[in-house]
Specification:
116 residues; 17% strand; alpha+beta; globular; four-stranded antiparallel beta sheet; 4 strands
């Protein structure tokens, strides 16, 4: 199962932060406008996405900032949609990420994924 975690749902610091484009130049993480996924094999983990992310972004830095274009994200989504063995909660997850991007990314063509 995968779903976006809000700032107040974070249980520890081992999370991936999905952050709006405007937050990429800041030195401090943990924006309340961001959403979060757990690290490792557990509920709401980025591990469910990693096979698709790494096919599109083979240089993805699991510990650092990653600038992800909306086009790359769409390719990640398409790969997941074509996988008959995918976690079916990914469909709702991608729809919710779309809503999140429309709500606050200011029309920018990228966003950030910060590693733990």
């Amino acid at each position: 199962m995968i779903r976006m975690l809000a700032y107040d749902e974070i249980e520890d610091s081992c999370v991936y932060e999905f952050s709006y484009a405007e937050n990429g130049d800041r030195e401090k993480y943990w924006a309340e406008s961001s959403f979060y996924l757990n690290w490792g094999i557990q509920e709401n983990s980025i591990d469910i996405l990693m096979p698709y992310i790494l096919k599109v972004l083979p240089e993805f830095d699991g510990y650092g900032p990653n600038r992800v274009t909306v086009d790359e994200w769409e390719r990640i989504r398409a790969l997941a949609a074509m996988d008959p063995e995918r976690d079916l909660t990914l469909d709702d997850f991608f729809a919710n990420v779309d809503k999140w991007l429309r709500a606050g990314n200011g029309g920018n063509a990228h966003f950030w994924i910060f590693g733990p």
